[in-house]
Amino acid sequence: MTTALILGAAMRKDGPSPALVRRAEHAAGLYLAGQVDHLVACGGCVTFPPTEAEAIRVILLANGVPATAITLEDKSVDTVQNFRFAKSLVSGPVIVVTDRLHMPRAMRTARAVGIEAHPAPVPHRLKPRLVLREVGANILYLWKLRGIR
């Protein structure tokens, strides 16, 4: 079985962020193309309900993915927790679905947690604000990933 981990992204007061929608729709496309046969939606409730995982599930279902192909990891609040909490839900290598800018940090995190992962980045236009955010997050994660497992 090939499993995709869909990493969470922000929920807003008015619904899922564009990043969360992009990730879920990309994962649905992978499923419908037969590239994965199971999807783990990751993300808890960080700011606004519902959980990021539940919002991903709704988008997957709306895009034709059957409920039986979806598992929720709905407790995590960051990338480290996405992988730590999803680790018990998967066996073997996984396909990671996240924005291409976030992918290097996600892949480092997967390795640190002990998950064999392969990237399936979501193509999108880079915005300067997101690049700056990710630079800061990468610096933080260099410290955060020390000694994890």
UniProtKB/TrEMBL annotation:
Superkingdom as given in the UniProt entry: Bacteria
Domain named DUF218: which ranges? 4-125
What the entry lists under InterPro entries is as follows: Cell_Envelope_Assoc, DUF218, Rossmann-like_a/b/a_fold
> What is the protein's given name?
YdcF family protein
